[in-house]
Amino acid sequence: MLVFKKKQDRYQMQAPLTSLIDIVFLLLIYFLLTTNFIVEEGIKIKLPDATASAPQVKQEITIVVDKDGTAYIANTKIPIDALYSRIKEMIGKDKDRLVIIKADKTIILNKAVRVMDIAKAAGASRLSLATEKGL
After folding, report:
1. What pLDDT digit, counting tens, does each position of 24-72 carry?
2. Based on the structure, what is the number of domains in the chain?
3. pLDDT at 28
């Protein structure tokens, strides 16, 4: 009579997943908390839409013109007659600095063009009109 040994089940090795999941969640929370979320605060305006606009990586001087035609630089209200000297002071010797004009889309075009003319007269060689990415 032949007697066969009964096959024993092999032990399977299992990695402890709970500690691995905890580490992944801690890393996720760390990166969420340390990431810079760029939020532009300031004057509420509605930018016009454009489908062919490209995002500006380096913003130098930003002039915001609200729906009433009031100009703001760095959230500070600047009268139109003082805008020329302020822009000229900010540009200084660097004539290649980019001047971005964010004008409300409900503004009369003449007011936005007037601000662009003042910036050009102050020595800005690069002007850009900010838009939002449209559909």
Report:
1. 999 999 888 887 666 555 556 676 676 765 655 554 788 888 888 888 8
2. 1
3. 92
- Give 80: exposed, middle or buried? Use CB within 10 Å, 0-12, 13-18, 19+: middle
**Does residue 127 sit within a domain?**
yes
Higher pLDDT, 58 or 75: 75
User: Does any domain span residue 55?
Assistant: yes
Q: How far apart are CA 129 and CA 109, in angstroms?
A: 12
Supply the CATH number for residue 62's domain: 3.30.420.270
3-state secondary structure of 76: strand
Structural domain includes residue 44: no
Rg of the chain in Å (alpha carbons): 29
Q: Which domain holds residue 86?
A: 49-133
Cα–Cα distance measured from residue 50 to residue 57, given in angstroms and rounded to the nearest whole number: 17
Better pLDDT: 11 or 33: 33
